[in-house]
Amino acid sequence: MKKCVFASLSLLFLISFVLSYTSILAFPSKLNKEEKLVTNCTENYIGHLSHVRMRGKEKQSPKEEVTATVTRTVSGEMTLQMSLPKIGKMPGRMRIYVPHIKVDRTGYFRQTVKDALIMRMLFSHKYNAEIEGRIGDRSFSFTFKTIKATYLGVDVSAEFEFVGCLK
Question: What angle do CA 93, 96, 97 make, to 5 degrees?
């Protein structure tokens, strides 16, 4: 009788082990998706623009606060998004979208980015830019400079610095 109970319990344990192990292997994509959601982190940094240059000329820095939205990944990359306030007599709005910024272990980054600045006048126009900066635990700063930005032959270059803190 004891052998029969022991055999039944052993069989029950073996079946439950096989079922639980099979369920882990059968649904790996669901686990991976949840893992990816946990590893991406979106943060808002509130700060100000300074050293603003438009069309090669120094402009007064906007007094209003600006929000830089940063999404970081475990792979060491981040994406930057930011809407810029109106500067001087600028006829349109500007927005920055910079994906795949490679950040080193110290938080430093520097790269040239295609279509980083989106300028909306009558239509949207995209311009390449250089971005360099540093991101820390609670701080974020960078310089941004367009590369050969023209609209209908007119210089529309933009350059500025941003310094902000985690909201």
Answer: 135
CA dist 137 and 133 (Å) reads 14
Q: Which helix (H) or strand (E) holds 1?
A: none
Which of these CATH numbers, 2.40.160, 1.10.3300, 1.20.1070, 2.60.40, describes 40-166? Answer: 2.40.160
Longest dimension (CA), the chain: 95
Cα 48 from Cα 81, distance rounded (Å): 15
77-129: pLDDT as tens digits: 999 999 988 777 676 788 999 999 999 999 999 999 999 998 887 788 898 99
Joined together, the tokens standing for residue 131 give 């971005």
pTM as predicted: 0.71
